[in-house]
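=== RUN LOG ===
request id: a7f3
mode: sequence -> structure
chains: 1
length: 119
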Amino acid sequence: QVQLVESGGGLVQAGGSLRLSCAASGRTSNIAYMAWFRQAPGKERERVATIVWFGSATNYADSVKGRFTISNDNAKNTLYLQMNSLKPEDTAVYYCAAQRRDRGDFSSWGQGTQVTVSS
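=== RESULT ===
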């Protein structure tokens, strides 16, 4: 099992920046991919960005391309999401998630961290 704990959320004005962190523990050697998801009130959960855990390949939702950057530090077992040029529509609870090598879905989830962007 992999345990995930997010941090770094908060309140920021439009145009500002935040960096989210996700600390992973447990069987991290079994992770294939990690991702950031978000869910705003009344909306479906959206995958924001994905990264190959032991690689460098990344993928982004069109809504955040050019503004958000996903990265990781394998030595620290930590995932990051640098969010720049934030917009009010980025307001949501952000979750990190891990997909194991032997599963086809994101089976480990953090508790979530609130990001609020004021206009």
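=== NOTES ===
The CA atoms of residues 29 and 54 lie 9 Å apart.
The two ends are 40 Å apart (CA to CA).
=== END ===
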